[in-house]
Design brief:
By secondary structure, the protein is mainly alpha-helical. Helix content is 51%, strand content 4%. It folds into two domains: 4-53; 68-101.
Length: 103
């Protein structure tokens, strides 16, 4: 295997990163396998997995169009929902209004 005592710090960090990735990948594969088994059992009994666990199917929300753009960098936009981005807060503090930044 590996002699951890002879490995350099960059090698150890890479190994740590690779192990974390392998663990995540393993857990995801296991989760998918269990979900497939549950789905098959539910279908066998005439149900969907959502009916069995009491979860509504995903609605697939549509993305919301941005309403505001950063005057200094038009690639930075905000929909007006959720937390205000830092550039919005800074613009408001400097005396601008949301109407000034409206797209």
């Amino acid at each position: 295997m590996f002699d951890l005592n002879t490995m350099s710090l960059p090698e150890l960090k890479k190994l740590q990163k690779d192990v974390a990735k392998a663990i995540d990948s393993f857990e995801e594969r296991q989760r998918k396998a269990v979900l497939a088994e549950l789905d098959a059992l539910a279908r066998e009994r005439g149900f969907t997995i959502e009916q069995v666990v009491g979860v509504a199917p995903a609605t697939g929300r549509k993305p919301v169009a941005p309403k505001y753009a950063n005057p200094a960098d038009s690639s930075q936009t905000w929909t007006g929902r959720g937390r205000k981005p830092k550039w919005v807060i800074e613009a408001l503090e400097s005396g601008k209004t949301l109407e000034d930044m409206a797209i």
